[in-house]
Amino acid sequence: MTRPHRAAPRAARAARVALAATAAALLVATAACSSDSGGRRAREEREAAAMGQADTPRMTVALVTHGGEGDTFWDTVREGAEDAAHKSNARLIYSSDPSVEGQATFVRNAIDQDVDGIAVSLANPQGLSRVLADAREAGIPVVGLNSGADAWRDLGLLSFFGQDETVAGRAFGERLNEEGAEHAVCVVHEQGNIGHEARCAGLAETFEGESEILYVEGTDMPSVRSTVEARLRQDSSVDWVAALGAPFALTAVDAARDAGSEAAVATFDLNTELVNAIRAGDIAFAVDQQPYLQGYLAIDALWLFHTNGNFSGGGAEPVLTGPAFVDAGNVEEIAAFAENGTR
Q1: Edge-to-edge strand order for the sheet containing 324-327?
Q2: 93 within 8 A of 64, measured Cβ to Cβ
Q3: Closest CA to 61 of 129, 120, 10, 118
Q4: pLDDT value at position 238?
Q5: Where are the beta strands (DSSP E) in 202-337?
Q6: I need a surface site. Which of 166, 173, 215, 222 has the fewest CB within 10 A?
Q7: What local confidence, expressed as pLDDT, does residue 26 receive?
Q8: How far apart are CA 54 and CA 52, in angstroms?
Q9: Which strands form 142-146's sheet, in the order they lie side by side?
Q10: Phi, psi torsion values for 215, nearest 5 degrees
């Protein structure tokens, strides 16, 4: 596999997180402060904010995803990326577009800006292959996240952070068997997304009942609701709806209610509203791939490459962040984190 030629700085071996020094400075500033409590408080807040931030040279990194409008999954990914960027003394440029053409344009923009690293989701690896080759040619390190667990090596990326979507789909299908499901509809909200197709294919592989794929327009939630409702009205044998994202699962609950269907709803991925829906019994379970962790690790990997020459996963294996099931039995364990926007 061809590696980027931009070498990690040797001086970065001395990189460290300036906790002790900053803490000492904070103590001195507090002891020596004047009676101006407002100024003292502002100074202390600035110093506290600096704690835990690397003193390595300032970097600029780009994160390009295929997130669509209204899909809160990507808000959590971005939250993790922003936290990692702050820790790493990096400026983060975030861009998203459901179309592969838009994603390629954003990657091209990052190359033109001569960023220090790029993290990209690979929902359509073939459509990004040329521009990612250009990034390698420019010596810009690139890591993958979320989608593309089977494609990142062939594209010459440093590392990948996410879940194996086929494995996740198989686990979903096995869970449906345990639930006694007979007819499941797998709702795909991004046509052409290889990760979505892999989830539904994995589900069909292990599920012992009947399964089918229902394509919806994910950027138009009223259309999602009416399409799911129509399918449930059309076939009363459908007893489970498998959504591929939290907002779409919540919409499927409404669609089932509108259709007068008793179909249960389960999903891939979480957000705060979905956690509450599991608590309320409206959603049976969710497969969590930890999007915050994907965003955080992707940006952190670029920093580690620059400062210490590290390859997460050894450059050969993906770093898996899922799958794990969340249901009524364990939802309270992560509820507080979900409310913070990090699960």
Answers
A1: 210-215, 183-188, 240-243, 264-268, 285-288, 324-327
A2: no
A3: 118
A4: 98
A5: 210-215, 240-243, 264-268, 285-288, 319-320, 324-327
A6: 222
A7: 36
A8: 7
A9: 90-96, 59-65, 117-121, 142-146, 160-162, 319-320
A10: -90, 135
Q: What is the distance, to the nearest Å, from the Cα of residue 39 to the centroid of all Cα atoms in its chain? A: 39
Peptide bond into 323 cis (omega under 30): yes
pLDDT along the chain (343 residues), means of 10: 41 37 37 41 44 88 93 94 98 97 98 98 97 98 96 97 96 98 97 94 98 96 98 98 97 98 97 96 97 98 97 93 96 91 87
Q: What is the pLDDT of residue 340?
A: 87
Nearest in space to 181 (alpha carbons), one of 268, 260, 265: 265
Residues 255 and 229: beta-carbon distance below 8 Å: yes
Dihedral sign (CA 291, 292, 297, 299):
positive
**Amino acid occupying residue 309:** G
Question: Please, which residues have CB within 8 angstroms of residue 264's CB and are 6 or more apart in sequence?
Answer: 179, 181, 239, 240, 241, 284
* Residue-level pLDDT at 68: 87
Fold topology of 165-288: Rossmann fold (3.40.50)
Residue intervals of the chain classified under CATH 3.40.50.2300 are: 58-163+291-322, 165-288
Domain 58-163+291-322 sits in CATH at 3.40.50.2300
Distances (CA, A) of 230 to 189, 245, 253, 258, 337: 16, 20, 13, 9, 35
Question: What is the DSSP secondary-structure string of 173-228?
Answer: HHHHHHHT--EEEEEESSTT-HHHHHHHHHHHHH-SSEEEEEE--TT-HHHHHHHH
pLDDT at 289: 95
Tell me how far apart the terminal alpha carbons of the chain are, to the nearest angstrom.
Answer: 33
**Residue 49: its pLDDT value, please?**
46
* CA 189 from centre of chain: 16
Task: State the Cα–Cα distance between residues 229 and 261, nearest whole angstrom.
Answer: 9
Distance (Å, whole) CA 167 – CA 175 = 12
